[in-house]
Amino acid sequence: MPILLGLDTGGTYTDAVLFDQAQGMSGPGISTAADAAHIHGGVLATAKSLTTKHDLSIGLKGAIEAVLPRLPEGVRPADIALVSMSTTLATNAIVEGHGAPICLILLGYDVKSLERAGLKQALGTDPVVFAAGGHKPTGDEQAPLDVATVKAAILEHAPKVAAFAVSGYFSVRNPAHEIAVRQMIRDLTDKPVSCGHELTSKLDAPRRALTVALNARLIPQLQQLIRAVGTLLTEKGISAPLMVVKGDGSLIDQQVALTCPVETILSGPAASLVGARHLSGAESVMVSDMGGTTTDIAMLRDGRPVLNKEGAVVGGWRTMVEAVAVHTYGLGGDSEVRIDEHHGFLVGPRRVVALSLLAHLYPTVLDKLRAQYASEDMMAYRGQFALRQRPLDTGAEGLSEGQMKVWEALADGPVALADLIFSPAIGRHLARLVDRGLVIISGLTPSDAAHVLGRQSSWCTEAAEIGAELFLRRAPFAGWVPPENGRALAEAIVEQVVLQSGRVILETSIAEQAGIDHHHWGTLGRYLVDRSLAPSQADSALVDVALKLNFPLVAIGAPVGSYYGEIARRLRTELIIPPHADVSNAVGAVAGGVMQKVAITITQPIDGVFRAHLPGGLKDFTDLETAAAFARDTAEAEAAAMAKKAGASDIELSHERADKVFEQPGGLKIFMESLVSVTAFGRPALAQG
Q1: Does position 23 have pLDDT exceeding 50, yes or no?
Q2: CB 85 within 8 A of CB 8
Q3: Closest Cα to residue 402, out of 385, 423, 381?
Q4: What pLDDT does 249 receive?
Q5: Does residue 396 carry a pLDDT above 60?
Q6: 536 — phi, psi (to 5°)?
Q7: Which pLDDT tens digit goes with each residue over 297-345?
Q8: Cα–chain-centroid distance for residue 666?
Q9: DSSP 476-487
Q10: Domain end marker among 555, 589, 623
């Protein structure tokens, strides 16, 4: 039977999984319990390697080299029939506010659009260009495209950005202007470009612009990852097709991902959900995936992932990418332990490098920690370090003189912040490098607390212990009273992780069930949730509070063993931690199928005319049924071609049609619009042995 290789590059670990057969693969989350047992029984080997953000190929090479020697006797790397990978890098970059600088070109938008959908806040200092153009709801031009303005903007900003994002007004009804600008960018530059009509067929111009901007920022990182994997596979003699997990849990060929990497938003969370389904055999459960940077929470109903039809929510931004309905929170094993001026003792959302891991990788860090612990001097930033996270590249050009000096100071490895930051200006330069994802901070994390408490022993326990003691020397504020010693602090960190994790699981559940966002809980709602999650309730309390999660909780991810037993107890639910839970993403990477969807809208611009808004332009008909039939045929051909290009074989098509009709008093019906959708599904095409 075919051998499959699943890969996942997460914020902390890169995972690899070998399977001995492909028959258990299914569509995104579509399987039976027998399929789950089949997949689980097919796991030959798993391996982990630390993710190396400064050079992703190092971590990938470590995971691949660790798992390949465990191939069955007589099986060579060249015999591997499929390689598929998922990644949490896109999710992490959005949550942490990292990403490459981009230029957003808006065609036919009003300047006030920046104030909607969080677009202005998301863009920060990245340039925005407004140009005449765009279309009307009917698909007709609202103004001719201002080619001169667009060309000047491309030439001005190309040297300073890593990618372009283009969004045209009503481009989902006619993408002609977006396509024209995309071609101009490709003719004038070598920069990647992302267009709004490629992401969604739904209306909402500001949110579509937000989505295309966020996605364009991710293009360089995802391209770097995909190319690194391709190079490694070639070096190892693996010529199998390389697939990438999309945000809905389905797969696309690497070439499609390279030209349209926006499809991989929430790739990691989607793969983890598919993997959890196959590993646990569960039908209807809440799935919580705790990684190093984030916790991703999603639902399985009747064996299928619940999809967010309104668009994936990541890091507080509501995008328009249809994906698994994952609620992502900045809480993981490597989240920063901090004291917030307004909220007190907290964990996250920023990811830092655990001190225990840093000292494991750089032994001189332990010497510095010992020196800081022995010193009686007043010292700012004790127990914190800075180090390079990735190399300077095209997306990192334009560093100021001060930023470059900080960058050069980190050339030989981690530097203690106490030695690095000797003025407020240096602190600002460092913060900018961190915001751009070039530099990362190291400090106390839940992973360090687990080392202090003996729940984890992978890295340097002494560094974690000293880090905890140094944290206690920080000046207390916000009413926080420091624990007595480092061990008590570690226990407090674990308790905080339990409370915050329980809170976000309940947030997700309440939002899913009642549509009530946690911002609308009010004082009473927050009290009830926090009271229910408290370690114990006093016997003298007038009112007991007990919120119960009615679905079983499937916990996956490397850190869950340290926290989720207690989390499930406080949620009063069954806990399932399946075998291979720590590599669920890599399992999900080889458990999915290829799925592509095409939607065509039919409108009635004037009486007697039914207009099909096709991928290649507009076509008018005098009869609705004729228009719908043509739209269906076009969508079927387009979806099948997209699925084949995405790497599918044995393609099956399904279609839906939804008509919007307004019924007036007296029974008169007025046609509004019709949406014809076709979904193409197929198995990944395997290498022929």
Answers
A1: no
A2: yes
A3: 423
A4: 87
A5: no
A6: -155, 155
A7: 998 888 778 888 777 776 677 777 778 888 878 899 999 999 877 767 8
A8: 50
A9: P-TT----SSHH
A10: 589
Number of neighbouring beta carbons within 10 Å of residue 481: 8
- Distance, CA of 589 to CA of 577 (rounded, Å): 19
Tokens matching residue 653: 């098509």
**φ and ψ at residue 467, rounded to 5 degrees:** -60, -40
Distance CA 277, CA 286 (A): 11
**Percentage of residues in the chain with pLDDT exceeding 90?**
48
Torsional sign, CA 198, 317, 243, 225: positive
Please identify, among 589, 623, 653, the residue that sits at the C-terminal boundary of a domain: 589
Residue 365 has pLDDT above 50, yes or no: yes
What is the per-residue pLDDT for 397? 57
What is the pLDDT of the chain when averaged over all its residues? 86
Angle 369-374-378 (CA atoms, 0-180°, nearest 5)? 90
| DSSP one-letter code for 519 | G
CATH code for position 609: 3.30.110
User: Does 278 share its domain with 202?
Assistant: no
Q: Which of 682, 656, 671, 516 is nearest to 592 (CA)?
A: 682
DSSP letter at 461 equals H
pTM for this prediction: 0.76
Closest CA to 300 of 637, 552, 666, 571: 552
Question: 252 and 157, same structural domain?
Answer: no
Residue 8 contacts residue 46 (beta carbons within 8 Å):
no
Per-residue model confidence as pLDDT tens digits over 241-284: 999 998 888 899 988 887 777 678 778 888 888 888 888 888 88
State the residue range of the domain holding 246: 3-95+224-282+584-589
Q: Same domain for 213 and 107?
A: yes
As given in the structure block, the two tokens for residue 247 are 């945000």
- Give CA separation, 449 vs 27, 360, 390, 490, in Å: 39, 15, 27, 4
**Residue 136 maps to which CATH number?**
3.40.50.2300
- Here the tokens at position 39 are 């997949």
- Rounded average pLDDT over 347-365: 94
Q: In the numeric block, which tokens belong to residue 515?
A: 């549509």
The answer to whether 4 touches 84, Cβ cutoff 8 Å, is yes
Nearest residue to 285 (alpha-carbon basis) of 455, 33, 503: 33
Q: Are residues 131 and 166 in the same domain?
A: yes
For 223, which DSSP code? H
- Whether residue 544 lies inside any domain: the answer is no
